[in-house]
Each structure stands twice: as C-alpha cells, then as structure tokens.
Amino acid sequence: MLSPHPPDAGSPVAADRGGDVSVGVLAVQGDVREHIRTIASLGARAVPVRRPGELAALDGLIIPGGESTAMDRLTRSFGLADPLRERIAAGLPVYGSCAGMIMLSDVIADPSLDRHGDPQRSLGGIDMVVRRNAFGRQRESFETDLAFAGLSGAGSVAGEAPVRAVFIRAPWVEKVGRGVQILAQVAAADTPPAGPVEGGPGAGSDRSPGAEPIGAGRPERVARIVAVRSGNLLATSFHPEITGERRVHELFIRMIRGEA
Ligand SMILES: NC(=O)CC[C@H](N)C(=O)O
After folding, report:
1. pLDDT tens string 20-79
2. Catalytically annotated residues
3. Is GTP-binding there in the keyword field (predicted)?
4. 11 alpha carbon – ligand 1 mean position (Å)
5. Does 206 or 189 have the greater pLDDT score?
6. What is the pLDDT of residue 189?
7. Which of 51, 89, 153, 199 makes a 20 to 30 Å CA pair with 255?
C-alpha cells in the first residue's frame, strides 16, 4: 500500500523510489503488457488485475487501450465492474488510455448495443461525454506531437517537450463538466463520422469549451479534447505506452503519491 511521502511536488519519479506503489493494470483485454512494462520501467510495482479480490492491495489502477465493448462485457462477467465503481468512487487513482478513457467517462455518446439492444456501459467517474472511434475512417490511426499540460508538475505546457501520441480508433471528449481539467487537444474534423444518437446522451451541440474553431481559413477543423484530469482520474485518447513516452505514466505515479 501507499506509504506517506514528504511533500516534494514536481520532483521527477526516481526509479529507486517507485517500488513503494502498486499499480494494477486491468488485465481482462487490451494492451496490458505495454502498460506493465512502462510502469515497471519507472520502478513501480505493476500488477495485472483480473479478480475483485486483487483490487484491495492497489494504490492505483490503469485501464488499458483495447475495445471498450469487450472490456465492459468482461469486467461485468468477472464480477469486477461494481467493485471497480466502488473503488473509483472512494478515490482510487485511475488512468485510462483510449478504451480506458471510454470506461472512465460518465457518458458514452455512441455506445454499442448488444444483441438484446442494451447499450455498453462505462464504469464512469469523469464528468464528460466521450465519442468512440471519433476521428473517422481516414484518420482512424495516426500519430502526432501534442502539447500536454502539467507533465512537469508546473501546470503549463511552456518549456515542455511535446508528447508523441498514437491514436488508434481513438475516442475524443465532446463535453466536460466543471472540475474536469483539459490537458491536451488535437485539431480534428468539426463533424464526427456518425451523427449523435437521436435523443441520446450525445444529442445536441457537441461544442465544448475545448472545441474552438482553429484558424480563420479552416473553419472545418476544431480543437478536440484528448486528455483530461478530474481529481484522481486521468484519461488520454491516445497510447503513450506504445511510443516509449513515459511522462504520462510518471504524472500518474505522482498523482498516486499525492504529489501532482
Ligand atoms: N485503441 C483503442 O483503445 C480503441 C478503442 C475502441 N475504439 C473502443 O471503442 O473501445
């Protein structure tokens, strides 16, 4: 379990101090190994999690990228969904990448339906609306450099090297509630590939404070939110774990320690 630390906010995570935190990686589906490798490379203990009983010993949890529909189905059938919701509500630090971001959203704009017509469910925790596969066919998978706020603990992107971000059939965040901090945005199409479900949670304007038009001559492109933080919860649309980028995981470890 997490031991108390002297308040040294902003200091880099040193490998020899990282072993004091246990970071679970939800291991029902998705790119579990890459997160385990990244966490272990930072010196923290990385633990694959498949059973409800494994949650108690964790200081933090990562929900990996993969397929949110399958993750929803499997977490429910493994009896993990409700215990996870309880731990999230009790303040467990959780980082979700891509499908993990979808799992942490309070509302999925375009949930898939099972054969009974029941929509996929998220675990929730972050007051936001997320749209799955939002970047559309042509840009289904792409890489770009992003300005990402707060990586050094300074709370701004000034002087911060950009994050190399890989997006794979990634979601974007359409709306955030109060208390949700926007950490990174990317220029993308104004219109999502499929319209919002009529009358559904995603219906109506999808313009959030982050969706401002970019450039006078290119009104068709807006800034889409791709990284957020809300209290102890962190989510990115992209996969830092597959590019060798470790600063997002470092930020998460500092959040677990109460240093960020
Ligand atoms: N790389 C990813 O995690 C893709 C997410 C996937 N499109 C989903 O809906 O869950």
Report:
1. 899 999 999 999 999 999 999 999 999 999 999 999 999 999 999 999 999 999 999 999
2. 98, 239, 241
3. no
4. 33
5. 189
6. 72
7. 51
Q: Which fold has domain 15-195+209-256?
A: Rossmann fold (3.40.50)
Closest residue to atom 5 of ligand 1, CA basis: 99
Nearest by Cα to 66 from 19, 101, 18: 101
| Mean pLDDT to the nearest integer, 8-13 | 38
Cα–Cα distances (Å) from 38 to 1, 45, 64, 148, in that order, read 20, 11, 12, 19
What ipTM describes this predicted complex?
0.96
Three-state SS string over the chain comes to: CCCCCCCCCCCCCCHHHHHHCEEEEECCCCCHHHHHHHHHHCCCEEEEECCHHHCCCCCEEEECCCCHHHHHHHHHHCCCHHHHHHHHHCCCCEEEECHHHHHHEEEECCCCECCCCCECCCCCCEEEEEECCCCCCCCCEEEEEECCCCCCCCCCCCCCCCEEEEEECCCEEEEECCCCEEEEEEEEECCCCCCCCCCCCCCCCCCCCCCCECCCCCCCEEEEEEEEEECCEEEECCCHHHCCCCHHHHHHHHHHCCCC
Domain boundaries, the chain: 15-195+209-256
State the distance from the centre of ligand 1 to the C-alpha of 68, rounded, in angstroms. Answer: 6
The response to whether residue 68 sits with its C-beta less than 6 Å from ligand 1 reads yes
Report residue 194's pLDDT band, with 50, 70 and 90 as the boundaries: low
The mean per-residue pLDDT over the stretch 154-173 comes to 82
